[in-house]
Design a protein that fits this description.
With 224 residues, the chain is α/β, with parallel strands linked by helices. It has a single domain, classed as 3-Layer(aba) Sandwich (Rossmann fold). The chain is 34% helix and 14% strand. The protein has nine helices and six strands, in the order βαβαβααβααβαβαα. It has a six-stranded parallel β-sheet with strand order 3-2-1-4-5-6. α1 links the parallel β1 and β2. α2 packs antiparallel against α9.
């Protein structure tokens, strides 16, 4: 009997997405492949706290993510953080997901992070509670695994205790493990795209055409 995708872990991919680009899309795609995820749920932040304010509104960023992911049946978009009135904390997002009838406490969740974001995890609100709610999947460059020497002491101890080599182990429990995967390096950043747009240069081939059209139609990221 074919495997039900709902038996696989659900990837959770949050971010500002200002704007969403092919680097984001490739990370989600490769995470789904390497970590054997059933789906990836994209959650644009409404009011992110750990960086400067986004250049465009949460509604526009949500719309761009919907356009970028629309053709991939393994991707879904969660607008709850955009709809919420309070700032976005990842731990509160995961707690909310665990309270929904669709997910509940048992389905494995995998929070997807880049290596830099993972290394900065001790600065996050209630960061140690994240692993009570989800596994963590960390993307790194091929041939350059997580640099353990650069991890803060508390995070290093957590990594050593919870690291698992096999993606299949993420199915065994709902939360609590850390897995890594090599991601194709694309060298694309939202900052780079915003700079190109501000200078009147083309961002083509850095993000989906549908997103470029949306940016132009709504006159986002205007030229300086």
């Amino acid at each position: 009997m074919p495997e039900d995708w709902r038996e696989r872990p659900l990837g959770i991919f949050g971010g500002t997405f200002d704007p969403v680009h092919f680097g984001h899309l490739r990370l989600a795609e490769e995470a789904a492949d390497h970590l054997q995820l059933g789906e990836v749920r994209w959650i644009p932040a409404g009011q992110p706290l750990l960086r400067t304010a986004p250049q465009v509104s949460a509604r526009h960023r949500l719309a761009m993510v919907r356009l970028a992911t629309a053709r991939n049946p393994s991707f879904e978009v969660d607008a709850s953080e955009v709809d919420a009135a309070q700032p976005s904390y990842t731990v509160l997002t995961l707690e909310r997901l665990r309270q929904t009838s669709q997910l509940g406490p048992r389905r494995p969740l995998v929070l997807l992070l880049g290596a830099d974001a993972f290394a900065a995890l001790p600065g996050w609100h209630r960061w140690q509670s994240l692993l009570e709610l989800a596994h963590i999947g960390v993307a790194h460059r091929p041939g350059f695994p997580i640099d353990l020497a650069r991890l803060p002491k508390a995070l290093l101890a957590c990594y050593r205790e919870r690291f698992c080599e096999q993606a299949t182990a993420l199915r065994d429990t709902a939360a609590g493990r850390i897995a890594t995967f090599a991601m194709t390096p694309l060298g694309i950043s939202a900052t780079q795209i915003r700079t190109l747009l501000a200078n009147g240069s083309s961002p083509r081939y850095l993000l989906p055409d549908e997103v470029i059209a949306y940016i132009r139609n709504h006159r986002l990221y205007p030229e300086n």
